Amino acid sequence: MTSQQPKNNKSDASLEKHLNSTFAAIKIIFIYLIMGFTWIIASDMIVEIIFPDPETNDIVQTIKGIFYVAFTAIIFFYIIHRQMDMYVLTIKDLKKAYIELDEGHKKSLQLEDQLYDLAYYDPLTGLPNRIMLEQTINRYIAEKGDHGMIGIVYFDIDEFRNINEVKGHSVGDELIKSIASELSSHIQKPHMLARMGGDEFVLAFFDMMELEEFLPTIETYFQYIRKSYMLAEDTFFVTYSAGVALYPDHGKDYITLMRHADAAMSIAKSKGKDQTVIFDDEMVMVIKQQTELLNQLRLAIQNKEFQLYYQPIIELDSGKPVGTEALIRWVHPTKGFIPPLEFISLSEKNGYIKDITEWVFKQAAEQFPEWGKKRSFKVSINLSASMLMNDKFIADLIRWIEDHHIDCKKFNIEITETAIIGDIQKSIHVLNALKRLGFTIALDDFGTGYSSLTYLQRLPIDTIKIDRSFINSIKEDTEEFYVLKYMIDLAHHLKLTVVAEGIETKEQADMVKKYDVDYAQGYYYCKPMPQQRVIEYFKVTQQEGV
After folding, report:
1. Distance in angstroms (rounded) separating the CA atoms of residues 338 and 342
2. What confidence tens digit (pLDDT) does each residue in 404-437 have?
3. Judging by DSSP bridges, how do beta strands 228-231 and 234-237 pair with one another?
4. Residue 29 Ramachandran class (φ > 0 left, ψ -120 to 50 alpha, else beta)
5. Co-location of 406 and 462 in the same domain
6. Residues 148 and 234 sit within 8 Å (Cβ to Cβ)
7. Does residue 104 sit in the same domain as residue 141?
8. Which of 245, 294, 373, 497 could tie 261 with a disulfide, CB 3.0–4.6 Å?
9. CA-to-CA distance for 276 and 266, rounded, in angstroms?
């Protein structure tokens, strides 16, 4: 009943309008007839009185008829002309209304397109967003069922946060657009590249074949974008960490596939980044353990669970210790010793590395007086990449120096090549600031990176530490041996001192001493130990030598 009401109201209004128009027309005709008959009768009577002569009367009657016809024509002309003007105006109004309606329709279509783009495409890169990716995957699963196969590659840019912090978000956006443009130019349907937000992307490969063929395909795509990018006049070499999940093996719906691919990517990050990891069921347990570890890491400093261990650095000419490297250890109340590799990367990813770094500086400064008054003795502290590239690091360090009474001349800062390679210009700026504060600088893990020699002359460093993996593979009269000899000679030519890490045998100790390495450290001399035990070792070596 109620649904018919609007229609009935509309019909009644139309009928009423039609009746009003009819009554108005009848009224006009009725008035015209009265005036017409009145004119004819009255005018005839007047003419008869004024012109009784029949001949004159006929002439006047003719003139009167002509006048009546002319007057009537004028009246009809006025009425018709007015109606025509109204009709023309109505036509113009209708045309105008049609144009406005057409423009409104076009704007409506444009707005609809804009809303569609906003709903399904990323505004920065123009790539499909997570909504379109989800709909596409769900549609494929609905059509193909278990007979189809999808390869999901969830990846992000390693150390992208550093680029944003160093160069600003606008430069970071330019890098995102460059990567999106490079990859999308190689993606062909039905495959798909989507941006999930931030620096995270997903490659979806539909109707994928065998896994053995799939992994080389992924690596081929990454080779297109694993390269150096010029960003705001600085060069950044960009790498990627990726996790892979397969439909239907690793999940039969979109949410599960994404969760598992993301978990695999997290594992790739924890293993050192710049690699691709395929999901397996054990990863769920690993992610759970990492989450628990992270929750416990929040309270580790407060609960005094961290300790500093020290490993002596030996001067090879004298055989006496001249310094020591401070190494953080986490002694968990129930899990015991937790290796730094398990929690340092977690602390970097979740922002705890700043508190941990401050704790190391504070503890090392407090314990330094126990090493004695030896003028040349120094304690080395490792500095993570995330701290080195943090814009607030130098300001924070100056505050720590004041708060904890740190004598900068008594400390050596160790950095790795991976910490500086992302932005060499900023690294040089930060290292120079450290030098001005009084610290000496050592380049750790030297020999593991392909570009170490390239940057060696440009960096404001005092020491290189040759990595243990390089030392362990050295045998005389081999290619590696001559490379080692060249590195030592080059460092000395640049007036740098050389430390050999990972010395575990007498043969290794004799070899590095023979070829003019200045200092050494490793299990052959002393393993990392609490301070008091290392001090006891120092007392013995001061008396006997090594």
Report:
1. 7
2. 999 999 999 999 877 777 678 888 999 999 999 9
3. antiparallel
4. alpha
5. yes
6. no
7. no
8. 245
9. 10
Domain count, the chain: 3
Is residue 12 assigned to a domain? no
Both tokens of 327, joined, read: 């190494």
Residues 6+ apart with CB under 8 A from 150: 137, 140, 141, 204, 205, 206, 208, 246, 247, 257
Residues 80 and 195 in one domain: no
Amino acid at 268: A
Q: Checking DSSP bridges between strand 192-197 and strand 150-157, what pairing results, if any?
A: unpaired
Same-domain check for residues 357 and 496: yes
Cα 72 from Cα 405, distance rounded (Å):
116
| Residues spanned by the domain of 263 | 130-280
In a domain, 290, yes or no: no
Q: Report yes or no on 109 lying in a domain.
A: yes
Report the C-alpha gap between 218 and 206 in whole angstroms: 13
Are residues 185 and 46 part of one domain? no
Query: Are 91 and 137 in a shared domain?
Result: no
Enter the tokens of residue 411. 């400390």
Among candidates 308, 320, 323, 313, which has minimal Cα distance to 502?
Answer: 313
Length of the chain, please? Answer: 546
The verdict on 110 and 141 lying in the same domain is: no
Q: What average pLDDT does the chain have?
A: 83
Instruction: Specify the range with the lowest mean pLDDT, choosing from 57-66, 433-442, 444-453, 502-511.
Output: 444-453
Residue 150 within any structural domain of the chain: yes
The DSSP symbol for 128 reads B
Q: What is the reported pLDDT for 158?
A: 87
Name the nearest CA neighbour of 398 among 358, 368, 427: 358
Token pair of 256 as six digits: 């599960």
